[in-house]
Amino acid sequence: MAAKKVLLRFSSDRISQPIVYRLIKDFNLTFNILKAAIRPDDEGEMVLEIAGDLKNYKKGIAYLKESGVEVLDTAKKIIKEEERCYQCSACTGVCPSGAISIDRSTMLVSFNPEKCIVCELCVGTCPSRAMQVHIK
Fold first, then answer.
1. What pLDDT score does 59 carry?
2. Number of folded domains in the chain?
3. Distance between CA 85 and CA 121 in Å, rounded?
4. 85-121 pLDDT tens trace
5. What is the CATH number of the domain that holds 95?
6. Nearest to 56 by CA among 84, 33, 29
7. Are residues 62 and 82 in the same domain?
8. Residue 87: which domain range?
9. How far apart are CA 109 and CA 90, in angstroms?
10. What's the mean pLDDT when you consider all of the chain?
11. Which residue of 68, 72, 82, 88 pairs with 7 in a disulfide if CB–CB is 3.0 to 4.6 A?
């Protein structure tokens, strides 16, 4: 079973179409919407974690591309630069996914990139700029 996070970009003419729904119906894939910003009469972006059989996953991704959706293999990710972090914990309060937490045994800020939904809230909150956007 394949499970991957992808960033989808929709043009304004694709927003009203049930493109993502077809991943379930036609390709037997499941998905979790990690982040979505869709504005009517504009473009939209979604970060999805898509899971299913590898063969169906590849077919589903091909379908998205054929439908005019830009598919990026989570082009952005958040990294924590440990040497810059001075453990103020400001980032822990804004993280909606629980990717950033305080390890109670050490009282150090811990970052789990697997839980990160790339919302970038921590980046703007971090006074030492230890939380950074990394573009592949």
1. 94
2. 2
3. 16
4. 999 999 999 999 999 999 999 999 999 988 888 888 9
5. 3.30.70.20
6. 29
7. no
8. 78-135
9. 10
10. 88
11. 72
In terms of domains, do 101 and 84 share one? yes
**CA of residue 19 relative to chain centroid, distance:** 18
Please report the DSSP string for 7-50 in residue order: EEEE-TTTTTS-TTHHHHHTT--EEEEEEEEE-TTS-EEEEEEE
Instruction: Report the phi/psi class of residue 118: left, alpha or beta, with left for phi > 0 and alpha for psi in -120 to 50.
Output: left
Nearest-angstrom CA–CA distance, 115 and 105: 21
Task: Tell me, yes or no, whether 47 and 88 share the same domain.
Answer: no
The CA distance from 116 to 95, in Å, is 8
CATH code of 66's domain: 3.30.70.260
pTM, rounded to two decimals: 0.56
CA angle, corner 132, sides to 72 and 64, nearest 5? Answer: 10
Alpha carbons 128 and 84: distance in angstroms, whole number: 6
Asked which of 72, 101, 126 is the last residue of a domain, the reply is 72
Contact (CB, 8 A) for 50 and 23? yes
> What is the distance between the alpha carbons of residues 26 and 90, in angstroms, rounded to a whole number?
43
Shared domain check, 67 and 51 = yes
